[in-house]
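tool=predict chain=A
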Amino acid sequence: MIAVLLSYRVPIETIDALRPAHVDWLKQGLADGRLLLAGRKVPVTGGMLLVRGTLDDVKTWCATDPFATEGAADYEFIEVAPSILAPGLEALGQ
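tool=predict ok
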């Protein structure tokens, strides 16, 4: 599993204009079974994704995010091997 941290590089107005396409991209990731979680950083300076797949696969997928294709965000990738999970989150360890 890969945690992806996004940091915005452009004014929030640009992010807001790109957000509908970004949300569509996230929804497709959910439908594909790739995306597990997405959320905004607080304060809103970027976001965080939790994604299934290899590091290379996740990097390739993230390169198709409208925020990436428009140069609006930087991406940091952190590979995680879950070992202790709260009840109800067992699927994250697979």
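Residues 2-80 form a domain with the Alpha-Beta Plaits fold (CATH 3.30.70.1060). The mean pLDDT is 95.
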